[in-house]
Write a structure and sequence with these properties.
Layout: E1 6-7, E2 10-11, H1 12-16, E3 20-22, H2 25-28, E4 42-49, E5 56-64, E6 67-71, E7 75-76, E8 82-83, E9 86-89, H3 90-103
Antiparallel strand pairs: 1-2, 3-4, 4-5, 5-6, 6-9, 7-8
Length: about 110
Amino acid sequence: MHTYLFVDGLDVVARSDSRMAGLGPERLLRPGGPLWPTDMPRTVEVAAEEQPGPDRLTLRVRLRGETVIWSDLLYPGADGRPVEYVRFRLEQYLGEIERAYKALGHHL
């Protein structure tokens, strides 16, 4: 099972590198897991090559006030221009991660 990461309706993993598939949701979405923001910025592995290989897709996650920022991205946006970072409201971001985790049958 793969995690799909959508921003503004676009699949970040597929648009970044079509050879990649998102890592498992058990790994990425668990409480306190890699996508949970902290004050300390950190690089998070979010995808790997579907065929075994050394390449990985990473992004940087950080919390600035009530805003979660994903940076070190580079994928084409809906207008074709490169997307290098995205921002999310903290409450909405955590709500979406919690919703997806609960959909796996887990309770927070």
